[in-house]
């Protein structure tokens, strides 16, 4: 009786390993861009929600009640923000808030160094609602 030898195209353990690694490599090539895009969309969505939450809190603040935002700072909003809300955004940058040139308005700002995320955030607002200077996104409210 002749013994069958495993090996090249006899599908030995090495060939199985190469096939599995090859399939995983191809899957990574196909799915990595989609995963990256989903992560960017998620981060942009969290940033947008944070900007809207801060704007809403500013309207409810003592500054919003008298329509004079002179002296407003993030610390003034902590009691008006949802529990667990952080000044640090999903991208690791801090939200900022300060009075606008017109004291009846305020600016909510955040630095967004990732151009693709910045474009996603910009696309969620009308052009007259924001300005961008370098990587800093700024919304004027109200």
UniProtKB/TrEMBL annotation:
Query: Which residue spans traverse the membrane?
Result: 12-32
Q: Which domain of life is it from?
A: Bacteria
Keywords from the named record: Membrane, Transmembrane, Transmembrane helix
Q: Does the keyword Transmembrane helix apply?
A: yes
Q: What is this protein called?
A: Type II secretion system protein
Phylogenetic lineage? Bacteria, Pseudomonadati, Pseudomonadota, Gammaproteobacteria, Vibrionales
